[in-house]
Each structure stands twice: as structure tokens, then as C-alpha cells.
Amino acid sequence: MIIGNQTAIYSQYQEVQQPKMPPKDGSELPSSAKVTKEEPKGLDMRNISSGEIRDLAKATGDDRVWQFIPFEKFEFDGSTLKGVENKDYLGFLERRIEYKNSIGEPTTNYEEILSALKSYQGYILPPKIDVRA
What we know:
By secondary structure, the protein is mostly helical. It contains 3 helices and 2 strands.
């Protein structure tokens, strides 16, 4: 066997070409590989719904959460419930304290509850169980 050329000729070899991704138009869904998990957001006590108040009371077992819930007016339009909206829970208690101070009534109970509720600002509720899974 006679080997005429003992050195490799690199110019004959081509590197492996990677296929180019076709440009995506707006009608395609993003790939599932790029899906990022959202960080759970904490409670905003200045923008909280009655359902979140209920969930907070269940999660913490703190009775002070229930004591001064802002009143809500509920109306039904056929079978649709109207009037469910988020409330400024801390602002409600702050205004109540200001009013009680203006008429000369004691506010120690309100102030204790307000300080307890401020400690729940940003509280992350435990995830709910998906019953349809």
C-alpha cells in the first residue's frame, strides 16, 4: 500500500453548518424552552380584595385580619356579581384612626391592628392546589 500524501489537507473539509432558524413572524407562539417561572407576588395591603383577605386569614390564622374589613356593597346583575373590587385596607384603618382621634375616642386597638396588618405587607401566600389536575 502506497500512501502518497501523509499530511492532511484541511481545505477540502468543510465545517459542519448549523441550520439557520427561519425568521419568526408574529403568528407563532414562543417556544416552551424560554418560559420562565413567575416569581410569586406578595400581598399589597393597599390594594387587596376580600378573597385575598380571606386567604391571608386562613394561611396565618391571625384573627386581627378579620376585625376591620372595609364594607363592600354587592349587587347582582342577573347572575353576575358586581362590586367585587380591591380596597385600600391600610388606608381604611388609617382614616378610621384619624376620625377616632378627631372625636376624642381611644385608638389603641386600631393602632395595634394597623401595625399587625403592616407586617403582612408583601406576605407571599402559599400556592393553591389545582383541583382539576
